[in-house]
């Protein structure tokens, strides 16, 4: 393994190219490179990320930890494959042959497998065509390692040889996370609570190339500083995938108390939720976000029936995206575990919604009745919303 690690000094990044022609292609590649640079920030080593005719390369300029790099690249949406690669200079075919034979012995020392050489010749000045290079390299490998066999239909190992200005040589393709590079699909405002669902919802939105800002509502002194820190920690984990984000922390206490005083208690949750949506939308519009994102999933809790979703959704005109709507709790938990938010989400801190929650909340809110209840807030609540917006704290989240 040590030998292998010393061997690789670059990664070839594969991305699905469907639908990215012309100008879109540049936007896609540039966003992908930006996200790769961000993901590698803070990693051991120094890296350069560059593109060259339909390829993105990550090259290391000093000592680095290949496992750390592949793990970080594994979080960059838009990447479909990560190929640890050897790059070398050549003058003639013998140089290539020698390096390929050496590579095969070091990277696949097991010695007993079927293979196929797949060459791409981008240097049209090279005196052999790709079929000839395939055949000659195949022969050289069989000669050097007699236990190998060629299988052109279903080989165990592909040796990819790209003859460009230099040669790129690789045989392992580690899966990337797929999706689209963040920054290619606009921005959305995530309502981020300390729960399990909303970080997953943010992750899934970012996966489609949407950049994310977030808003969190807290109710000091009913909710603690540690509850807030938990949300900051969750935002940091999500930002490993989504890139840097702004987290808007809204003091929701006065609004909640006002609703508590004026409105029927079984309507508290739904009315509170409507104010969250209104405030999140105001921040979204101001930040250029084009949608709101929540972690709601039908039927999970009382406030997440279709009538409830309709009732909270009606107060804003931006679309509300609910990426986990069709998931069972366990499916959401599985993603939370995969993206590493779960352990943080289950820390037991109070949430502003649960503190004022009624014993028997309405599960099929009637919108007319809810609107009428909200009229009782008129004259006071507008000022409170304004103050909440003005006094918000904005936390700049950079991934750890
Ligand atoms: P989560 O696990 O995301 O907290 P949940 O199952 O606890 O979801 P609810 O508490 O009903 O569900 O909240 C539904 C959604 O409303 C959340 O997914 C989140 O998007 C938003 N939300 C709830 N509370 C807050 C809050 N304090 N700050 C920001 N958004 C919130
Ligand atoms: Mg919650």
Task: Supply database-style keywords.
42% helix, nine-stranded mixed β-sheet, 15 helices, VC0802-like, six-stranded mixed β-sheet, Rossmann fold, 400 residues, binds magnesium ion, single chain, binds adenosine-5'-triphosphate, 15 strands, 2 domains, alpha/beta, elongated
* Helix fraction bin: 40-55%
N/C terminus separation: 28 Å
Instruction: List segments where confidence is low: pLDDT < 50 over at least 5 consecutive residues.
Output: none
CA radius of gyration is 27 Å
CATH superfamily of the largest domain: HUPs
Instruction: Please name the CATH architecture of the largest domain.
Output: 3-Layer(aba) Sandwich
Ligand set: adenosine-5'-triphosphate, magnesium ion
For this structure, the CATH topology of the largest domain is Rossmann fold
Structural class: alpha/beta
Q: List the domain count as a whole number.
A: 2
Q: So what's the CATH class of the largest domain?
A: Alpha Beta
Strand-residue proportion: 15-25%
- Give the number of helices: 15
Query: On the 0-100 scale, what is the average pLDDT?
Result: 92
Q: Find the count of extended strands (DSSP E, 2+ residues).
A: 15
Tell me which oligomeric state these chains represent. single chain
- Globular, elongated, flat, extended or rod-shaped: what is the shape? elongated
* Major sheet attributes: 9 strands, mixed
Q: In sequence order, what are the helices and strands, one letter per element?
A: HEHEEHEHEHEEEEEHEHEHHEHEHHHHHE
